[in-house]
Amino acid sequence: MKTPQNASAITEDIDDADAIPRLVRENRLSDGELANFDKAFSLVAFALNRHIVDHLLRFARQFGPDYHMLIVWGVVAHQCTAHHMCPGSRPSTVLDPDGMLSAPDLELRPVRQRDVSPITGIPKETVRRKLLKLESEGWIQRQDSGWVLNRNSIDPELREFSRESAKRLLAVSDHIRELLKNP
Q1: Residue 92: inside a domain, yes or no?
Q2: How far is CA 13 from the centre of its chain?
Q3: I want to staple 130 with a disulfide (CB 3.0 to 4.6 A). Which of 54, 72, 93, 145 is the partner?
Q4: What pLDDT, on a 0 to 100 scale, did the predictor assign at position 27?
Q5: Does any domain span residue 100?
Q6: DSSP codes joined into one string, 1-34
Q7: Is residue 116 within 8 Å of 13, Cβ to Cβ?
């Protein structure tokens, strides 16, 4: 598998540029866990891979196997809402009781088609087709200056999928912490 030339730049483009380094510092491995990483490497890598594959397969069963569409939708959703969700924000400061952005009229920052391709590494023409398909399926909306998430696409089915994904992510996180504590 080819590694992007600057993988950290891709992450910084998807999320607030300061968020990832801060989150890595705040959630870093303890000295003991770091010392045990190489001893547990294969089991940790296996657990991570199992989680990623499981998530992608669940996505494909739920929404269809178009992974490029998933990536384009995810980038649009993150880019147009990230400015409202600063790292370290508490849910009660930015979200309403239903877990949505506090005010329905909060501005979503449109994402231009020409910016999605460099962020994702997906060819421009493919990005264009995926944006049009996402629009026709109601996941995103076109505005004068770009694309934004269609807030109405966040339905109970997507919430349940996300809830289950969070449960599985936390379970694999706990499993990896145990592997690193007891090599």
Answers
A1: yes
A2: 12
A3: 72
A4: 62
A5: yes
A6: -PPPTTHHHHHHHHS-TTHHHHHHHHTPPPHHHH
A7: no
pTM: 0.75
Residue entry with tokens 């909060």: 106
- What is the CA 80 to chain-centroid distance, rounded? 13
- Predicted confidence (pLDDT) per residue in 16-34, tens digit: 444 544 544 556 777 788 8
1 inside domain: no
Domain encompassing residue 68: 7-181
Residue 52 pLDDT exceeds 80: yes
Does residue 143 form part of some domain?
A: yes
Domain count, the chain: 1
Instruction: Give the pLDDT confidence score for residue 99 in this predicted structure.
Output: 83
How many residues in total does the chain contain?
183
Task: Copy the structure tokens of residue 37.
Answer: 């990483």
Cβ atoms < 10 Å from Cβ of 35: 12
